[in-house]
Amino acid sequence: MLVRGRYLGSSFSELLELEHPQLRISWSDALAKSQQFPEVPHGTTVLAAKYADGVLVAGDRLATEGYRVASRDVQKVYNTDSHSLIAIAGAAGPCIEMARLLGIELEHYEKIEGETLELEGKANKLSQMIRQNLPAAMQGLVVVPLFAGYDKSRKTGRLWKFDITGGRYEEAEYQATGSGGLYANESLKKSHRNDMTRDDAVKMAVQALTDAADEDRGTGGIDLMRGIFPTLNVCSETGIETVDAAEVERCYREILDAGSRS
What would the CATH number be for the domain defined by 7-21+40-261? Predict the structure, then answer.
C-alpha cells in the first residue's frame, strides 16, 4: 500500500521495488547486456526429510562450472528464521541471493506485523520470488530450492519442493534435488521413516549424500583430507541446530566400516 509516496506494506521486496529499485539485482537484465552467456558456478545436491521431532535439511559443498570444480566449500543450507530453512540448487549467484533475501523478507515482515509469518506463508513468499526469477531461469540461471521448517501450529516438520515457474509442492516424507537428487532420493526411499529419531535422520542424510556423490560427478562427497563435510541442519520445536562436523564424520566412518564388512 502506498500513502503519499511511502510504502506501508510488510513486504521487503515490494519496498525495494517501489522506493529503491536501484538496489534490486536483475539477473535477466544482466544477461541481456552480456555479449555471451557467462559460465556460472552451479550448486548441486540438497535434500530435506521429516523425522519424529521435526525436519532435517542437508546439502553437499561442491559447486561446478561445467566439468570444472568452481568451489569445494559452498554453503547450500541457510536458516531463513528461527524455525525455517532453505536449501539451494541451481545457479549459485541467484540461489544465494534468493536465500538471503528470503531471510530479510521474513525478518522485515515480523518487525512490521509484530508476528511471524505462518510456515506455509513463508513457502508462498519463496514461490513468488522464484516466479520473479523466471526470465533469468529461461536463460539458464535456474533456481530450484527446497524449503522446510517446523510448523508450530501443527506441531510437525513440513517441507516443499519448487519448479522454475514458482510452483510449490508439499512433500509428505522427503525430497532431494540438484544433479545428484535422483540418487539421493533412491537412497532416502530405502531408509526413511517419519517416526525416525534425530540421530537416525542424520545418518540417513549422510548416507544419501554419500550415495549421490558416488554416482554423480557434480555432487561433492565427504573430503576427509581437507576436512570438508556436508551441511546438515535439523529443525524442531526448540529451533534450528547445526550438526557438527565431528558427528557427520562419525556417521560417515560407520558407513564406510559397514561397507567394508559387506
Answer: 3.60.20.10
- Pick the catalytic residue from 44, 177, 219, 231: 44
Q: Which residue, among 213, 81, 211, has the nearest Cα to 148 in the 3D structure? A: 81
Reading phi first (left if > 0) and then psi (alpha if -120 to 50, else beta), residue 40 is in beta
**Residue 44 annotated to the active site:** yes
- Mean pLDDT, residues 99-108 taken together: 93
Domain extents in the chain: 7-21+40-261
pLDDT for 35 equals: 47
Whether 2 shows a pLDDT value over 60: the answer reads no
Contact 126, 109 (CB under 8 A): no
* Residue 21, pLDDT score: 61
